[in-house]
Amino acid sequence: KQEVTQIPAALSVPEGENLVLNCSFTDSAIYNLQWFRQDPGKGLTSLLLIQSSQREQTSGRLNASLDKSSGRSTLYIAASQPGDSATYLCAVGGSNYKLTFGKGTLLTVNP
Amino acid sequence: DGGITQSPKYLFRKEGQNVTLSCEQNLNHDAMYWYRQDPGQGLRLIYYSQIVNDFQKGDIAEGYSVSREKKESFPLTVTSAQKNPTAFYLCASSETGERNEQFFGPGTRLTVL
User: Fold this and answer.
1) Would you place residue B1 in the very low, low, confident or very high pLDDT band (cuts 50, 70, 90)?
2) B85 in contact with A at a CB cutoff of 8 Å?
3) DSSP A42
4) CB B93 within 8 A of CB B4
5) Chain A residues within 8 A of B103 when measuring between CB atoms
């Protein structure tokens, strides 16, 4: 059974800092990996989707990498802003389109 | 405006009642999903459907039921058999091809009184 772990559970940084969020998974036979953002009381917003054949994806200040063999993904946020404060969720996709989620990293960016 | 809508935003249920949560999408996606989110836990899959008139149980289907009569709609019924239904419920949809990126609705918060 696929298990997804996100470290750290919470992170607080000053504005402008570059930061890395980590995601690890136990079964490397994945179809894709998706990073989401969730604001309090809201739904999830898709940030980046990495197919299993890809190594990384970039969108603006965000860069996500995938290393299937080691069961790891990282989300890099450059020049963090207070508006980046949210919970970031990593989810691993199986061949039947089902996603397995981690518990998330709560990010606070202080002005 | 393309997207996923869920209603109601807040729902209160008395013990012993069945309630139905609505999920509609206009993204022309074949697949739709229902998740449950509890504090301190990751999202857990309740049911999913990859095509009209077909659906499969997820990891925590007991006490829930769904239907998929139309491509754009995937309602979830929380029955009285669900022992701990208070949670945040999220609906999602995706294509079923290679790029099956999931998109989520705004959620429904269900509280049992």
Assistant:
1) low
2) no
3) S
4) yes
5) 46
Longest dimension (CA), chain A: 42
Query: What is the rounded distance in angstroms from the CA atom of residue B2 to the CA atom of residue B23?
Result: 14
Q: Is B27 on the interface with A (CB under 8 A)?
A: no
Q: Is B103 on the interface with A (CB under 8 A)?
A: yes
Q: How far apart are CA A34 and CA A29, in angstroms?
A: 15
What tens digit of pLDDT does each residue of B99-111 get?
789 999 999 999 9
Q: What is the pLDDT of residues A3-55, one digit of tens each?
A: 999 999 999 999 999 999 999 999 999 999 999 999 999 999 999 999 999 99
According to DSSP, the β-strands at B54-57 and B44-51 are antiparallel
Q: What is the number of other CB atoms lying within 10 angstroms of the CB of residue A11? A: 16
Contacts of residue A102 in chain B, CB cutoff 8 Å? Answer: 42
Amino acid (one-letter) located at B32 = M
Q: Which of B54, B102, B111 to mutate to test the interface with A (most CBs of A within 10 A)?
A: B102
Q: What is the pLDDT of residues B61-99, one digit of tens each?
A: 999 999 999 999 999 999 988 889 999 999 999 998 777
d(CA B42, nearest CA chain A) in Å: 4
CB A34 within 8 Å of CB A93: yes
**Contact: A43, B107; criterion CB under 8 Å:** yes
d(CA A98, CA B71): 18
pLDDT tens by residue, A68-84? 999 999 999 999 999 99
